[in-house]
Amino acid sequence: MNDLSNYRKSYEKSELLESNIPEDPINLFNKWFHEVEDFGGNGEVNAMTVSTIGLDGFPKARVVLLKKFSEEGFIFYTNYNSDKGKAIEANPHVCLSFFWQEMERQVIIKGIAQKTSENISDGYFDSRPDGSKLGAIVSNQSEVIPSRTFLEENLKKLEAAFEGKEIPRPDNWGGFLVTPLQVEFWQGRPNRLHDRIRYTSQSDFSWKTERLSS
Asked: Which of 105, 169, 189, 192 is catalytic?
């Protein structure tokens, strides 16, 4: 057995107080996001964990890249026929989480996912490099395949077929917009007395803020 009980760290880089937070969690998320980005320690500050309830009833989490956020919510892109795509279609209740180790911060977002409009998915797909476009077409994400060679050979065939041509977005690939219902901000503090502030969406489109015990 690997005993990890002595793995400890004191969190001392910042604090999160009610006196310095905005009324809207998206504004605080924006502030934190760019502070982490400016800090320069996180290779992909937009990397987030998306958790869903699978068709088998088990939760499943995987890391994807956030591609846009606004007052409407958080957008990422995927193959709709993947495990996550099928899970979201069956149960749109999802959780997004960010862990920014360098700033000792975590954000957890509970929300409802829905497909973005086709023009939004088209716009992002068109902005991708051709290799990424072809990768989205050739990969039947989450499906069992015989080998990596199988993927690479199919990619070569597609490269030849689309040489000098426009590459269209496949119908089974596009975006999900996650509309937040709750957003929790976690700031590491000394002695495990961490700061936790939770925003909860209200029926009048305002946000209720609460401090949670660490």
From this structure: 192
Which two tokens mark 23? 């009324």
Give the model's confidence band at 42: pLDDT under 50 very low, under 70 low, under 90 confident, else very high: low
**44-95: pLDDT as tens digits:** 999 999 999 999 999 999 999 999 999 999 999 999 999 999 999 999 999 9
Q: How far apart are CA 48 and CA 73, in angstroms?
A: 14
Does domain 25-126+172-211 sit in CATH 2.30.110.10? yes
Q: Give the HSE-up count for residue 184: Cα atoms under 13 Å, Cβ half-sphere.
A: 17
**What residues form the annotated binding site for substrate?**
8-11, 67, 124, 128, 132, 192-194
Domain map (residue ranges) of the chain: 25-126+172-211
Say whether 105 is catalytic: no
212 close to 196: Cβ distance less than 8 angstroms: yes
